[in-house]
Amino acid sequence: MINLLDFKRLHNDFENDLIKAATDVIKSGSYIAGKEVDNFEKNIAEYLDTNHALGVANGTDALVIALRALGVKAGDEVITVSFTYFASAEVISYLGATPIFADVFEDTMCIDYTKIEEKITDKTKCIITVDIFGNPIAYDKVKEICDKHNLKWISDACQAISSEYAGQKVGAQADATCFSFFPTKNLGGLGDGGLITTNSKSLFDIMKGLSRHGSGKLGAIAYKEMNGKDSGIVPGKIGEKYYNYIIGQNSRLDEIQAAMLNVKLKYLDTWTQKRIENVKYFEDNYTGNDIVFPTITPNGKHVFHQLTLKSDRRDEILEELEKNDIAYGIYYPIPLHLQVAFDDLGYKEGSLVVSEKICKQVFSIPCAPELEKEELDKILSVLNKF
Ligand SMILES: *Cc1c(COP(=O)(O)O)cnc(C)c1O
User: Fold this and answer.
1) Contact 126/72 with Cβ under 8 angstroms?
2) Rounded distance from Cα 187 to ligand 1 centre (Å)
3) DSSP state of 343
4) Among 65, 90, 156, which is best to mutate for testing ligand 1, by the most ligand atoms less than 8 A from CB?
5) With the C-alpha atoms ordered 268, 270, 276, 282, is the resulting torsion angle positive or negative?
6) Contact between residue 303 and residue 186 where contact means Cβ atoms under 8 Å apart
7) What's the whole-number mean pLDDT along residues 95-102?
8) What mean pLDDT is predicted for residues 112-133?
9) Are 264 and 360 in contact (CB under 8 A)?
10) What pTM did the predictor assign?
């Protein structure tokens, strides 16, 4: 069987480092907000070239906290795409705001920035763009629109760590950029984890306070940033630890996950390079006609979280992959605007024609860094039948 991912194989060369790092945390007796998280936040901010990085519990929380920190609340509208993972829009509804879906480009499958402005109303507060499958959106075009209309902007880069636009790593272009360390992501923990990056100290302080129940010193700082004044509370001798200044939530990256990520971050560039080479190998040696390879956003660096191909003969291809014991995935079979969960938004078939069309064509095949040459050739031989 050729799997989409094989963690055992991926971790094989440094499994002992992971075990040692986990053991060190266990022996340290410090499991939340310790030195591994501090180090990881420092390492990843440097790697992504952003001023601030905040570890949180998962990528979905990263989006929720970023939305809350940017002031998105019930009644607001947030523009995003329908062709993405559910969480990108779920978080908007979770806060009582309304997702407004824009269509994507058929070739890059990223947000069609020429269709954003027609969705803007006086309720529009924010845009969430998605670097789908690791392909960066056209950051400069979206920035122009956000600046012109004074909109807040969150980049959902949960699939795109280490991807680049115009030579700059994704992470500092939007007001806040969200990442996920779900095990299957290009940089995965051994459990859940997430991250928010920003260049704004003020936004960072608010997000940090929000992620810690709005309590203690961090809560007091967040209160001040959000309200433009001190809370006026004088905690006295006991300190402010059990004073709560804002309604926050509990969302933290834990020490063991941070320790795992500190080990794995060192390999990320090598893995990304390998993904790119694997895709190039398929593309250079593909001799058929019925499969469309990904189009990379001009000026972008695609990191192939998924190698997502398109074909009108998808069913036949999937059958052939199955026969050959090659795993595949369909990301995504249903666009979000047609999901039952979003019924009340009132979208109908035909509302977003490109998103609907590509949902019927896409399929993702293995391109993971740990694949062997023979496996690539076996996959290629199936592709070449079409
Ligand atoms: C994985 C993912 C998320 C959510 O991340 P979790 O860590 O699973 O909560 C959000 N958006 C996109 C596009 C993702 O791929």
Assistant:
1) yes
2) 12
3) G
4) 156
5) negative
6) yes
7) 98
8) 98
9) no
10) 0.98
